[in-house]
Structures are given as C-alpha cells and as structure tokens.
Amino acid sequence: MIPFKLVSLTPCTNPGVYKPCERECVKKEVEQEVKCVDDLKDKASEQLNDFRKAHTTPVGNVTTGSGAPLGVNAKRTSLSTGTTGYISLQDSILLEELAHFNRERIPERVVSAKGAGAFGQFEVTEDFSKYCKTTIFNKGKKTQVAVRFSRFGSENGTADTELDIRGFSIKLYSEDGVWDLVGANTPVFFIEDPLNLPSLVHAMRRNPVTHLKDADMFWDYVTLRPETFHQILFLFSDRGLPDGYRHMNGYGIHAYKLTNKNGESFFCKFHLKTNQGIRNLTPDQALFLASMESDYCTRDLFNAIGEKRCPSWTLCARIIPESEALELAKTANNLFDATKVWSQKTYPLINIGKLTLNRNTKSYFSEVEQLAYSPANIVQGIDVSTDKLLQGRIFAYSDSKRYRLGPNYQQLCANSNPCLKTKTYQRDGDNFVDLTEGGPHFFPNSYNGPVEKSGVQESCNVIPETTTSRHVLKEEDHFSQAKVFYKEVLKDEEPQKNLAKNIACHLQRAHSCLQDQVLALFQQVDEQLHKAIATQLIRPNIKPQFMRRKLH
Q1: What does the pLDDT look like over 179-219, one tens digit per residue?
Q2: Of 29, 109, 413, 480, which is the most exposed, with the fewest CB atoms less than 10 Å away?
Q3: How far is it, in rounded angstroms, from Cα 471 to Cα 531?
Q4: Looking at residue 22, what DSSP letter applies?
Q5: What's the pTM?
Q6: Cα(249)–Cα(300) distance, rounded to whole angstroms?
Q7: Of the candidates 502, 518, 521, the residue with the CA atom closest to the CA atom of residue 510
Q8: 18 annotated ligand-binding residue
Q9: At which positions is heme bound (predicted)?
Q10: Domain 115-189+234-411, what fold?
C-alpha cells in the first residue's frame, strides 16, 4: 500500500501553455496536473489546512514566553543600531528565541527512538473478574489510553520499514492509577537476564569507531548467546516487516501476576490481536518505501485515524493458576523466561476487551515524545512476576525517563493521570509542580498529610528455598521452541523462504568465520533452514565491504 501517488509534473511542450483559456488541449492538461497534485494530499498532509479551516481568523496575538504581546516587526527583525549595525543585547525577544531554540531537543530514547502515537479507549467486553480485581477489567468499563508504536533498534530519522522488532506500548489512565503494558509485536525477547541488555543494544547499534552498523558485532553476540535464536527467527521472518502498525499483533512478552477479590492468584501473559488482519511487507516493498516514504508507518496510522478508519485490537490473556505454575517451576520448564512462549494448546487465549485508537496527536512532542512508559507502573490486582528481565526493566525504564525528561516526568501532561490526583512526599527538582497545597513534605507526620490506605496489599511471590548467588543456568534447550516456530508457525514454503533470505542477506556482511558459527547454530534449529541460508550466502574469498542490491 503506497501512501501517496508518484506523478511527474511535466510542462506542456506547446508554446503558450501559460494561457490555458486560449487552447482547449492546454486547459485540459493543466486541469489534469492540478488534479494529480490534489491526489498527493492525504490526511496527514492536510493537517495545517484543517487547522486553517477550523480557525477562520488568527487565533490571537503572538506574545513572549511571559505573555507580553509583540508589536509590528518584533518577530521579523532584530533590534540593531541602524539597518547594518550591531545587534543590541537588550533585544530580549531575540535572546529568548535563540535560547529556547538551543534547548528544544532532548536526548532521544536509547532504544525505540523513532515512533508514532495515538489515543483512544479500552473497553472490557468479557467478565475477567475471576482472574483480576482491578477496576480496569470490570465488564463494560471504558478506560482512556495512550499508545506508542516504535522500532526497537531505531534512531530518529531512520525509515519505518527497516527489518526490526516493533514496540507496542499502552498507557491506561484509571481510577486505580496508571497501568503501563510495555510490549512488542513478538511474544518473546532476545535475552532473559537484564544484565545482558546493554550489550545486546550495543551489538545492534553502530560501531563506536566507524559509526556504521556492523554485522560482525551483531552475529558475534548472537552466537555467544544462543537464547537469542527464538527471537532471531521472529525478527528475520515476515513479522520483522509489518505493513504499518495497524496490521500487527502486540504482546506483553512477560508473565504478570494477577490477583482476584478472593485473594486467588494467577500468572498471565497479555496478547493484542489486530482486528485489521495481519499484513506484512516484502523486502523489496520495504526497501522501496524506505527510499520513497521513510515515515510510511507513521503516516499510515495518522491517515487511518484522521479518515475515521480507527484501528482496534482485541486484548487477550493466557492464564496459569499460581498452584499449577509453582508445580511447573519444580521442573525444567521456566514459565518466567522472556525468551520462551507458553503452549497455545495448554493455555488458550481468553478474550478481555477491545482497544480502539480514535484520536491523533495534537502536539507530537508533548503527547508522544514525552510519553514515559515503565513496567513499574502497575495497579492493584496486577503485579510483576519473577521474570528476571521484567524485574530489570522496572528500574531501567523509569530511570531512563528521569534522564530524558527529568525527575518529575510523571507530572508531565502525557504521564499524569486525569482520573485521580497523585499525592506523594517527593519534592523539588526540574519542572517540579507542588501538589501538596502547603502540606508537609515528610512522612510520617502529625499535620494531616496523605496517609496509607488500609486494605491495599502487595502480592507476594513464592520463591523456592535457595541461596542468593550469581546462578549460572544449567544447559538449557534454546532451540526447541525455535524449531516449533519454524515448522508449525512458518509452515508454508513462502514464509520459510523469506526467513532464510532475510537471514542470508544480513549474514552476508559478517566475517566468514562468524557465518560458519551461525550456520552451525541454525543447524540445531532445522536442517532445511540451515541449507536454505547456506545456499543463499555469497561466500567470496575476500569479504565485500557492503552488498549492493539491484533495484528493478
């Protein structure tokens, strides 16, 4: 699906074309060209025209940051001594403009830097109270949401259609507090221990010397951490090239602990099934769009919502009772390993409700760039499990927001909860807004400051008797689920062929000794896959600096 038409606005070769009323053929040609230009305009391109239509007169007088109105030419020319003289230091308007401009940009996210956002609601359509007591899951309940989609390995300015994992994060604003479900378009992740996260990101980013993407770095890391292979298959399959954000599923990845009103506990994995149908791009389509419309996914989402074709997803869950999970924990089956999935046959999906996006951003920076998601944001009835990666993300995500947005990032409009007023004993720091109305800033106190709420209980995770140590995992099976994904999920010839082609295309840029190691590991996944990758690899005596692809 191409977001706009490619047209050639070539002038007529006949002389006198600039007087269309004199010649009928020229008039028709001009009308046709104008129509082609109009066809280029989509909902995103019409944003400013829509604003002008909504405001038939200027919205007011331009002011300084402090609200003082600016006179004629105050925003056009600097204060100077004569037309060619020195600029005056007392030109506070100029100084304010330049000083603010110097500080417009904030650090980009260390991962998932480029993204798109939209807003809407989540409506519970099924009775889920049997498993969880949060009011978010009361049948019929509607909760306002903010959703951000992204590319995991992206930098700002890169193409939306590069082969990558897509982020899918949801912020739900409820009376119980803000709940963040921070997920992706794959049900697993590369690693299970957060200690390895910085190295994973470093291996996927640019070489610190050449400042180029380095296949040797990536595949060297992968071969030394075979638990990544399950996610590698997802990444290089068709799922790594979704046709926009609307046509992909979302997954919470981690196991969460749910508690109902009776105190019964369950473990859960959340899934979001797209109601638009799964649709992916071919590598050639993705390459074309990267060159012609690098913001393809962002534009597609904005246009769909702007044209009232509101995308939606069905929120589902896989449930395991706590007692059953504890029994399974005694075996080698690790339910809390983010590199593995739960059996679809044993734990079928249970529908919960419908997520619908129906509003575009009004200000990308304030509403999306300042959105701060963290797995630490949970509500009563939902708690974290002993998933090690989830435990690490609780700190990493919140702390990265303190670096990017400041210590009071939760007071920003995008992150503050409109459903309730927060009451903390945190004070001061950048962008602090005092919400205590003169109350005490220490706890406990005798001056009627906020007090603890009775009846609120934190759930407890049962940990088998063990010792605190840097436990080295026993030799684990990292390939069984990868085999199932290849043989049963990618069971058709075309998806399997695309997987091998995508892997070979990327692996081609790595050193030959690394290629051999990677092929040996893929042999443990499937012999057919191993042969398909090896067949498509170009193995010259001298490693090429980069591979040039022919564009047809």
Answers
A1: 999 999 999 999 999 999 999 999 999 999 999 999 999 99
A2: 413
A3: 36
A4: G
A5: 0.86
A6: 16
A7: 518
A8: no
A9: 397
A10: Catalase HpII,  Chain A, domain 1 (2.40.180)
